[in-house]
Amino acid sequence: MQTTMPDIANTAAALQTGKLDWVGMGDIELPFIFESLDLAPVTVNAKARAFVNLHQEDAKGIHMSRLFLALDHLSTEQQVNPHTLAQALDTFITSHEGLSDKAQIEFKFELPLRRKSLLSGKAGWKSYPVVLTSTINQGVISFELSVDVTYSSTCPCSAALARQLIQNAFSEKFAQETLTQSEVLEWLGTTQGIVATPHSQRSIANVKVKLDQNIQEFDVVNLINLLEDELKTPVQAAVKREDEQEFARLNGQNLMFCEDAARKIKTTLESKEFSDYFLQINHYESLHAHDAVAIAVKGIEGGYKA
Ligand SMILES: Nc1nc2c(ncn2[C@@H]2O[C@H](COP(=O)(O)OP(=O)(O)OP(=O)(O)O)[C@@H](O)[C@H]2O)c(=O)[nH]1
């Protein structure tokens, strides 16, 4: 009876030789405890991708189980922060001595955050899609953080056209009359008075930033806050009528095309001195069946491409 098991990855000849940029696994189910500044450690259900390069041209393959078990250790024995991710990447490399000198771990998950209502003092949960990518390349670690922020955008063109209709309706109705303040006040409170409303749409800002390689902590909450504060109209969790009215006011005072949203966020990211960034604004139009999209990058050599 054979007692030793064949070990194809170590002993078989490659069908064809050649270097490969990334080899590994995708869609790994991986719950873990995530640590980030201003956030109590939180369990998230991530989907992970784990890779090493294969730079030894005639090796049959990498050792998938070693990557999988290093991630499992991160999930069950540790909390995820820059330090433990660096350890996991180091394990990827040391367990593939002679085969690989690059490794990458990508986590995709939803981060639940408590969000306050605009005026009523209530709060509720809101989930933010996050992608955290950690890479080691010949001993140098880099981190990249991507978040999606959902907000409402009201079309400035539509708002101007609606105002014109309101003015036209007003001049038709009261052509010859001298009006009292209370008559105008009452008329403004009717559907005939505000005869048109501008369209607005649910919109998503996807922002990706390169983090300093020496960071001690991730800071997802403050990145999200930065973007929401700039956009002014993030979608809300708990909403009472006073919150809804305030949301309507904020929408009316922050009319924006996708270009406006993109320029606001670009200016904010520039002010924070990220070494690189990518942003994509998607306005899921209610006027059209297609979307309005704007993209910008920092524009550094070798950096993100638009
Ligand atoms: N390299 C590689 N492995 C694969 C692939 N698909 C499935 N596997 C399996 O991944 C399993 C784990 O591989 P290894 O990490 O080499 O497992 P092992 O030999 O038990 O572990 P070590 O003793 O640490 O080398 C093997 O059973 C492979 O068959 C693939 O496309 N490439």
UniProtKB/TrEMBL annotation:
Which terms are listed as keywords in the entry?
Hydrolase
Family annotation (Gene3D superfamilies): Urate Oxidase
Task: Give a Pfam family name.
Answer: GCHY-1
- Tell me the domain of life: Bacteria
Which pathway is it part of? Cofactor biosynthesis; 7,8-dihydroneopterin triphosphate biosynthesis; 7,8-dihydroneopterin triphosphate from GTP: step 1/1
Under InterPro entries, the record lists: GTP_cyclohydrolase_FolE2, GTP_cyclohydrolase_FolE2/MptA
Q: What class of enzyme is it?
A: hydrolase
Instruction: Cite the position(s) of the site with description May be catalytically important.
Output: 155
* Enzyme Commission code: 3.5.4.16
What reaction does this enzyme carry out catalytically?
GTP + H2O = 7,8-dihydroneopterin 3'-triphosphate + formate + H(+)
Similarity comment: family membership: Belongs to the GTP cyclohydrolase IV family.
NCBIfam families for this protein:
PRK13674.1-1 (NF010200)
Functional summary from the UniProt entry: Converts GTP to 7,8-dihydroneopterin triphosphate.
In Swiss-Prot or TrEMBL terms, this protein is called GTP cyclohydrolase FolE2
Source organism: Pseudoalteromonas undina
Q: Which gene encodes it?
A: folE2
